[in-house]
Amino acid sequence: MNKRLLALVAATISLGGCVSMTEPVSMGENKYMITLNAHGGFQSDGELLTRSVQKANEFCQAQGRKAEIIKTETGGVQMWTPQHNQVVFSCR
Q1: How far is residue 73 CA from its own chain's centroid?
Q2: If phi over 0 gives left and psi between -120 and 50 gives alpha, with beta otherwise, what is residue 90?
Q3: In terms of Cα–Cα distance, which of 92, 71, 90 is closest to 26?
C-alpha cells in the first residue's frame, strides 16, 4: 500500500511541474511586478496567470487596498517549453 501511495504522490508532483513565483517587486511609485515561471505540467496560461493575479491581490489586501492590474504578459507553450508570465499592478 505504501508503494502505491508513493507512486501516486510522485506522479502528481511530476504532472504538476515546477512553478516558481517572485514576491512583488517595486517598480517605482505604487507600481509592482510579479513574475511566475513554470517548467512542465499541465497548467494552462490562464491558470498560471490567475496565480500571479491572486498574489497581487493578496499583497494589496495586506495593505487594506485592492490590486489594479496594469499589464500582463505570458509566454511559452504548455508541455513544450517553459511558461512564464509577468503581472504589473498597483494598489488602490
Answers
A1: 12
A2: beta
A3: 90
Q: Please, is 67 exposed, middle or buried when counting C-beta atoms within 10 Å of its C-beta (0-12, 13-18, 19+)?
A: buried
CA distances from 84 to 1, 5, 19, 28 (A): 37, 31, 9, 23
- Of 20-24, 75-79, 87-91, the poorest mean pLDDT is in 75-79
Sign of CA dihedral 44, 55, 66, 26: negative
Encode pLDDT of 27-84 as tens digits.
999 999 999 999 988 899 999 999 999 999 999 999 999 999 999 999 999 889 999 9
In this structure, are residues 30 and 90 in contact, taking their beta carbons and an 8 Å threshold? Answer: yes
